[in-house]
Amino acid sequence: MAAHGDNVPTKVEDFLKQTQKESFRSILVEKPIDLEFDEGNLLASDPNQIDVKKFRQNREDFLQQLTRDNTQLLFNKIWELPVERLENVVIAKLPEPTTRLPREKPVPKEKALTKWQQYAKMKGITNRKKGRMVWDSTTQEWKPRWGYKRANDETKQWLLEVPEGADPYEDQFEKKKKEKSERVAKNELQRLRNLARAQKGKVPGVGLTPTGAPSKDHVLKALATTRKSDASLGKFSDPLPKEKPNKFAGKKRKFESNFVNTDEEKKRQMDVLKRMSSGQAVLDVQKATNTAIHEEEETRSKKAKGEGGAQKKKGGGSKGKGKGKAKKTFGKGKKGGKKGRKK
User: Fold this and answer.
1) Is there a contact between 154 and 160 (Cβ–Cβ < 8 Å)?
2) What pTM value is reported for the model?
3) Strand-strand pairing, 141-144 and 43-45
4) Biased-composition ranges for Basic residues (predicted)?
C-alpha cells in the first residue's frame, strides 16, 4: 500500500507535464505540398487536399487545426524576413505584394485643379495653415477665426464707424449684409465654374444657375398645380392610373361650433382658470425678445429701402409747402374740414 501511494504523485506530475506539453504545440508544421506565400499581402494559399472524412466527423475542430497550422507556417515565413528593432518593438519589413487583388471600381482619376490651384502651382505659392482660434479683444475670449460666432464680427457690432467720404445717412449695417451676400454669391459661382471645368461643361455667367434633378416633392407640387389649371380647377378631372392622393391639397379649417352644451363650456373655462392660477409664466421672455429684435431689424431694413418714408406720408396731418413742419389739428368736424381747423 505504501508503494502504491508513492507512485500516485509521480503519475500526477507526469500527467500535468503531458498536458502542458500538448498545450504548447510545436512551431514546425509539415505538409505534403508546400504552401504558396505572399508576404506583402500576408496571404498563405494551401493547395493540399482536404481530408473529407475528418471534416465530416468534426467540422469545427478540423477547421481550427487547419487554420492554426497554416497561420503558424505564415508566421514562420514572416520571421525569415529582415527585421529591425525600433523603440523596443521588432518590425519586419514586408516585400512588395505579388497577388493582384480585384477592385470593385476602376482607379479614380486625378481631380482637376482649380484656377487658384493652377496659379499657386505656377507661382510656387504654398498654403500656410493658420490657427482656427483667435483672441477677441472685445469679448475677452477665444473665438473661431471665421464662420459662426467668429471673432471681430462686424455684423454683430452695435456701432459702426462711417467711412470718410461715404454718405452719412447710409445704413452701414445693411451695407455690410449686402456685401456679404455678394461675396457668398461670387464664391458659389466660382465653385460652380470649377465643377463645370472639371466636367468639361459650362456655367452661365449671369442669371440663375441651373438646378439639378427635381426632387419628389417638387414633381408632386408641379403635378398638383397642373391638375388645377383647367376651367373647373381640377374638380372634374379624371385621376391618372395608380395615382396617389395629393398630399399638398389644401385643407379647410374646422372651427368649433358656436353652440355647445353647458358642461363643455364650463370645462373650457375651468381649464383657462387652472392655467392662469398654476403660477406658470404666461409670457415667454425669450420669444418676446427675439420678436422685438426681429421687428427692429425689419424696421431698419425698411428705412434703408425707403419704405419708412412712404409709411409716414400715409399718416394724418396737413402738409405745408414751406420748410416748417406741418401741425396736426383736431376738432369736432371732419379731418381736413373747415370746422376742424383752428382759426
Assistant:
1) yes
2) 0.28
3) unpaired
4) 311-343
Nearest to 196 by CA among 181, 182, 213, 209: 209
Residue of 193, 220, 222, 217 lying closest to 206 (CA atoms): 193
pLDDT, tens only, 98-150: 888 888 888 888 888 888 899 999 999 988 888 889 888 878 889 998 888 88
What is the enclosing helix (H) or strand (E) of 249?
none
CB 220 within 8 A of CB 247: yes
Nearest in space to 41 (alpha carbons), one of 85, 87, 90, 102: 102
Residue 43 burial (10 A CB sphere; 0-12, 13-18, 19+):
middle
CA distance 108 to 49: 40
E-only strand ranges, the chain:
36-38, 43-45, 83-85, 90-92, 133-136, 141-144
Residue 44, SS3? strand
Instruction: Write the DSSP symbol of residue 256.
Output: P
Q: How many CA atoms, within 13 angstroms, populate the side-chain half-sphere of residue 200?
A: 0
Grid cell in block for residue 327: 401741425
